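Table 4 source record.
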Amino acid sequence: MEEFENKFAQIASLLGDKSRSVMLWCLLDGRAYTALELSVCANISAQSASNHLKKLIQAHILQVEKQGRHRYYRYATSEVAQVIESMAGLVSMNDAYTRAKKPELNGITYARTCYDHLAGEIGVKITDALLDKGMIEIVERTYKVTSIGKSWFRDVGINIDDVISQKRSFAHPCLDWSERRHHLAGALGASFLTMMLQNDWIRRKKDSREILITGKGKLELKTRLNMDI
């Protein structure tokens, strides 16, 4: 037990450093970054960023990939990214925040990426629609795709059997820090985000985690899930 407590304290101290926490927040857009790019995000020197990143790699929070002359840093696993995103749920968005008041609506709270899946108001609404239409159901804190759901996902270009075969969580609820409700995460959430991007239902906003809903996307969501965007 003492060993576990010591390891927990070590992880907590790593995440508690301001510079490291800023870099981890930047990585939540799902892309890999160099030490120089992350140093700019955290407003520290490249050497200092490298030292911080080395500690995060040793703790298996991040991983590094070499490509040519560059080294790119990303989360070690999607589960780590989920923990970092969930921590935002502890943050009061402004001084007037109460449990009964959501953060002020803006682009990032309306639609954004949460590592490799869709989050924000739109992410929660899509998840609610999938549940209401019987495409997915909640079973023991995970999402299961129903028989009609398999057909629905196939129609939008997602093969559920292929998604299940991935070596990661298939589909689970992820607590949305701005909505305080759950959106769809895991391999299915990632596949859904990829499908929406590839079919131009949504587009990424440059240099931001914010997601823009296209006219085509609004029409598809209305037709397929009866969602008014």
